[in-house]
Fold:
Amino acid sequence: MIDLQELYKKNADFRESRLKSLFSDYSQLKESNPEGYSANLNVWKHFLSVLFESQFPLSFDYEHLSKELVYKTNNRSYIPEGLYIAINDLLNEKSIIFLSQLKVDKTKEGKSDFLETIKMLLFGPKSVDIRSKEYQEELLISVSKLQKYADKVKYSLLPLLEEGPVNLDHLQDVLDHENLKISKADLVNVLIYLRNQMPNINIENEILYSITSDMPNEDVRVNTDGLKNLTDLNFTIYKLHMYNEEKSKEIIQLNEKISQSIKNKSQATARSQLKLKKMLELQVQKTLSSLENLHTLKLKLEDAHNNVMISKVWKDNSKILKLLNDEATDKDLDLVFDSLYDEIQNTNTVSEKLAQGATGEYNDEEIEQELFELEASVKRDKEISKDSNVENIRKKLASLKIPDTKPQVSEEFNSELKENPREESSRNKEGTALNS
Structure:
């Protein structure tokens, strides 16, 4: 526990000239001297923050804190009459919270937050006064310290839960060996905070266990009575392991002392140390034998616990299967299929009747007359198309007739022949050669 008197003395803000103002109810300064009010408030908030981060308990009540913060000097004792001002301010800014806020059911938190938001919009933010009767039984918790503790506890807890359920004494002992001194009550508060962050961790009757993701909702609350013996056994195994480690270190130290005694030619001392070493080695051996037996017992208990769970699953699912089969018997299915077949037949009958009624609305003679006219029209169209094709063929043949008159050769071509008779002759020869 931190020495508050020393903490005051080391803080330069709590010098003699300011003590009267700091320990008074300085609320009236808010209007008359805002700067003085803010100065006092900031000094107390800083002092409390340092205090909460020290070895001060995680959870505390306002009245107890007021008594603890009395400053005793050589001249007089100062009672922090304005302490509530700093506490209220820390509460409003969420630096500290009420324990009841930590324990709130997360499933109802959203609805609660919504209602609080509506109230704040209608009436403004709610001002907390720690002196109110409403908060007389409330415990306060520093949020920053809670988060630091939670990180340390989580670091130690998760490896333990991998080995199985853990009781609080076991966890507290592990934390103590890791230099985290915490009361069981504060440890529970930290675990509540962790459970809000990690829903798969549960605590009942001082037993911690993990809720697996495939565990049915109705099995979330396990039988902790069945786990208590297992957690006690785990704690005993842990304590024996720690005991053996401690004694093994003592044996190593004795070996060094025996060697030193022999070097110093102190035979009596060496003999006494050797006897003590043999006793410790025998004790370690006995402890190891006990540990073997306890580990065997643990395996058997775990095996029996698994058998209980498996048996429960078989029984429950067997009951469910029977209920489902009772609801869907062969007789019921036959009735369902017979009823379904009858309804299908009724549907077919109605459809046929409706189809007959629809076709009877037309006159058959009118249908035949219209069909005859359509056939005649199609026949006429074919004949017209045929005549048109014949005429087109005649026109194409006429265009292909060979003309009766010889084709006229241009005068220019004739003149070229007269001027170049040899070229014409050679052309004639080439033509003759090609024809042959």
